[in-house]
Write a structure and sequence with these properties.
Elements: H1 3-15, H2 21-33, H3 35-69, H4 77-84, H5 87-90, H6 108-129, H7 138-145, H8 161-174, H9 178-192, H10 195-208, H11 211-224, H12 230-244, H13 247-254, H14 260-276
């Protein structure tokens, strides 16, 4: 492995907190004295933060979808205020007891509130148990239809830095280490303007769980490249929208594709959408 790639691995371990205290001190010392290594650390930190932001955005979008699907909870504020008052304050005025009977003292003032709470809980239980269409599972469909395409051209050999970077990117991609592959392919595009890397960058980001970033890079690949893989690009864009839960956008991306796999995915999405209505 070249010295540059060793430095990349060292920087990644440093930023991910995988080094011992002594190793971290050695890295800090080198960063202070080696401007090139310091710049590499800064670049790696920016790339890692971008990947984390993409993951965070996807997770927040999924949490918002879950929150929107939950039933609203109605809180009777008046009941809560009454429960905080002394027992005597919650009871309506009572007529004086008849001489021949002694009315038992108790928590009669709260009894009807308990009845209201019981009715509300019963209604919530009935709503939960009531048969309804199951929510479609985009992750289940994604797992069924996602398969990273084989790299065109096979393994890359060579001694220069570009060839070495392509080799390690391909090894990570073939080994389904999509997070690492995405970092290497991003470097190939940013540093060497390798437009072919954009396609594999998008697929790797999709496999790593960052569909928003995947859509952006696959779209850019379609704009800057004259590659004939148009249908493959649109298919993976559709899968990215599917993983984001944007069903209509996924169907739109699949329009006009004649590949049997794309037709199967289109039918599966339409079926799940009908079940959710």
């Amino acid at each position: 492995m070249s010295e540059e790639l060793k430095d990349i691995a060292l920087a990644e371990a440093y930023l991910n907190g995988e080094l011992s205290e002594a190793q971290r001190q050695a890295v800090d010392t080198r960063r202070a004295s080696d401007p090139t290594f310091a710049q590499l650390l800064a670049d790696m930190e920016i790339m890692l933060e971008g990947t984390r932001e993409a993951f965070r955005g996807d997770i927040e979008a999924q949490l918002r979808e879950l929150e929107q699907g939950l039933p609203p909870v109605q809180i009777d504020e008046a009941a809560l205020l009454l429960d905080d008052l002394p027992e005597e304050a919650t009871q309506p005025p009572q007529p004086p007891p008849a001489p021949q009977a002694n009315a038992p003292k108790g928590k009669q003032g709260r009894g009807w509130w308990y009845l209201v709470v019981a009715v509300v809980l019963l209604l919530l239980l009935l709503w939960w148990l009531w048969p309804r269409g199951e929510a479609p599972s985009q992750e289940q469909l994604f797992a069924e239809y996602f398969e990273a395409p084989a790299r065109v051209g096979g393994p890359t050999r060579g001694g220069d830095e570009l060839a070495e970077l392509r080799r390690v990117a391909g090894e990570a991609y073939d080994g389904k280490d999509f997070a690492a592959a995405a970092r290497y392919y991003e470097r190939l595009f940013v540093e060497y303007r390798d437009t072919q890397a954009l396609f594999y960058l998008g697929v790797a980001q999709l496999g790593a769980g960052a569909p928003t970033a995947a859509v952006e890079n696959l779209r850019e690949f379609g704009q800057v490249s004259e590659d004939v893989r148009f249908e493959a690009t649109e298919y993976y864009i559709a899968l990215a929208y599917l993983r984001k839960g944007e069903w209509e956008q996924a169907l739109f991306a699949l329009e006009g594709l004649e590949d049997p796999r794309a037709n199967e995915l289109r039918s599966a999405i339409q079926k799940e959408m009908k079940k959710s209505k």
